Amino acid sequence: MARMKRNANGSGCIRLRADGRWEGIYSIPAIDGAGKYVRKSVYGKTQEEVRKKLTQITGEIDEGTYVAPSKMKLSEWIDLWLEIYAKPAVKPKTHIAYESVCNNHIKPMIGHIPLKSITTTAIQLFYNKLLEKGNLSCKTIKNIHAILHKALEQAFLAGEIKQNPASRCTLPKSMRHKIEPLDDESIASFLSAIRGHRFENVYYLTLFTGLRKGEVLGLSWDCVDFENNMILINKQLLNYPHSEVSYDLSTTKSGKERYVPVASSVMTMLRKQKIWQEECAKKAGSGWNNEWNLVFTDEIGRHLCHETVYRNFKRIMKSIGMDGVRFHDLRHTYAVASLESGDDIKTIQDNLGHATASFTLDVYGHVNKQMKMKSAQNMQNFIDRVS
Fold first, then answer.
1. What span, in angstroms and rounded, lies between the C-alpha atoms of 136 and 11?
2. Do residues 220 and 304 share a domain?
3. Does residue 11 belong to any structural domain of this protein?
């Protein structure tokens, strides 16, 4: 007959099972809160091992920090988190990005681990393996970490785990992508290369306003103020490749709208764009379909595709020997040109739609420093003249 011994604090008991293992029995309140209790067990090879486990568990029950063991795997929790926590809280495209990261990286490598057993070390080894493969940047690994951390933090808040093991991981240090704006000569070559191209006006607006690609493609005519040379940026055209709705308008990256002052030559270009579009509408007749009143469309009013605009840009840059230039570098070119023209950091921050001026200064601080050094040299030249 199995021996049973009452635990010292009376909150559980320990017995020797017929199979030779020691079992510690304890009780926790039932989930329905009806005053009933549910019996749970822990096991070990020795009585002392089980006693330690039982003491820890009963202490957690008394402190209110106890989390009941769960057989749920990490992959199962991630699916649950994506559907009931993440989906209602983020933009559709963000949710799609979360799913992609979870399905392509997290679940295949560590999804089999029970949720309650996931450790900081296991997560750290996961990040290390991703880095060793060499096909993911440090920034991408940090993005993967951010998503996994969110999922595990929600598991902690929901009482599924005792703590978030991802909080104590060491992430790889990433180098900020070097800002390589186009110089005056390169800008001239670029403008010459895009002349007459079907996306000339798209690239022209991007270069001289610093808008993001989605903001340019999502710009509508009601947001163009020809009288005051201003455009309102209050949305962006987003691509949802794995959704029933492949393209849709969404809020800006920051979720805020902003007014951007526009040079007169850019406004002249927009007037020409409007005339061209009106002519296309007449030719298309009933086939014209510009449902979002977009500034940039094809010949029958349909929105432009991100990938098509990007591929054409890369072909143009390759044709003039600058195939290393990214589309985003047009935005950097605008920012640096604004700095060199004398605009202050706060103004540039507002125009670019950055959340803070400190971020703008962090990204373009080296340019600002070079300008300050040039200012000091100008003063020295002045001193030399008057001395």
1. 51
2. yes
3. yes
Same domain flag for 120 and 37: no
Summarised one tens digit per residue, pLDDT across range 191-246 is 999 999 999 999 999 999 999 999 999 999 999 999 999 999 999 998 876 555 67
Domain residue limits at 86:
74-168
Task: Decide: 123 and 169 in contact? Cβ < 8 Å.
Answer: yes
Tell me whether residue 50 is in a domain: yes
CB 336 within 8 A of CB 330: no
Q: According to DSSP H, which parts of the chain are helical? A: 47-63, 74-81, 92-101, 107-110, 120-133, 138-157, 184-194, 200-209, 213-217, 264-284, 306-319, 328-340, 345-352, 357-386
- Tell me the whole-structure pTM to 2 decimals: 0.64
Q: Is residue 69 part of a domain?
A: no
Looking up tokens 């047009």 gives 330
Angle between helices 357-386 and 345-352 (to 10 degrees): 140
Domain co-membership, 200 together with 164: no
CA distance linking residue 54 with residue 319, whole number of Å: 72
Question: In sequence order, which residues have a C-beta less than 8 Å from that of residue 196 and are 6 or more positions away?
Answer: none
Q: Are residues 200 and 98 in the same domain?
A: no
Number of DSSP helices (H) and strands (E) in the chain, helices first: 14, 9
What does the alpha-carbon distance between residue 307 and residue 100 come to, in Å, rounded to a whole number?
Answer: 19
User: In this predicted structure, which of 230-234, 243-247, 299-303, 306-310 has the lowest mean pLDDT?
Assistant: 243-247
* Cα(339)–Cα(365) distance, integer angstroms: 10
Q: 313 and 360, same structural domain?
A: yes
Q: Are both 260 and 361 inside the same structural domain?
A: yes
Q: 277, 269, 266, 323: which is closest to 304 by C-alpha? A: 277
> Could you count the other beta carbons within 10 Å of the beta carbon of residue 337?
18
Do residues 343 and 219 both lie within one domain? yes
* Distance spanning both ends of the chain, measured CA to CA: 107
